[in-house]
Amino acid sequence: MLAFFRIALILISWATAIFLPKGSLFKYLPVTLFSSLIILTEYLLGGPRKWWKAKGGAKTIANNGLTFTFGPYFVGNLWIFHLAYKKFWLYTLLNLIFDYLLAYPLNSFFEKINLYRLNKIKPIHLFLFSLSYSFVNYGFQLILDKSPNTQPSDGIAKGTRSIP
């Protein structure tokens, strides 16, 4: 049952990605990969520190971490950046809403279906972690935008001529 739930989470998340413009996908892919690494690090640190527990132990926690990171979190991050980047208040509002939903109603649901159970942290910690990651992500994307390697070019190197 839980394996079916994990697969469904990933498939549903990625099914929405087909509606994401290709330009947004490629523009926000680096920040999404960066933030996914942060989340995976949290899972690696949280397991041994017993922040949460799951039936099946470390293997189940790893499967849950991979499911959430490369399913709803990954695709959701792409969508939030697509919809709200350069509109900081909208970006913050969307993150407040989705982080609240994760920390409270969704967390309760996941605990109820025995996907995991919070152990040494509380839902408020999930909320604050998620919200703080969103600000780190926003700053990372701002840095990427200012990087000379990410500026659009016309495809012609400076000082060369194109051949007609």
Structural features, described:
Helices cover 71% and strands 2% of the residues. The chain is mainly α and 164 residues long. The longest helix has 27 residues, at 58-84. The model is unreliable at 153-164 (pLDDT under 50).
SSE string: HHEHHEH
**What distance lies between the first and last C-alpha atoms, to the nearest angstrom?**
62 Å
Number of helices: 5
Low-confidence stretches: 153-164
**Major sheet details:** 2 strands, antiparallel
Strand order of the largest sheet: 1-2
- What is the residue-averaged pLDDT? 90
Strand content: under 5%
Rg to the nearest angstrom? 19 Å
Number of strands: 2
Shape: globular
The helix-and-strand class reads mainly alpha
Helicity, as a percent range: over 70%
Task: Give structural attributes.
2 strands; two-stranded antiparallel sheet; disordered C terminus; mainly alpha; 164 residues; 2% strand; 5 helices
Short characterization:
Helix 1 (about 1-15) runs parallel beside helix 3, helix 2 runs antiparallel to helix 3 and helix 3 (about 60-85) runs antiparallel to helix 4. The model is unreliable at about 155-164 (pLDDT under 50).
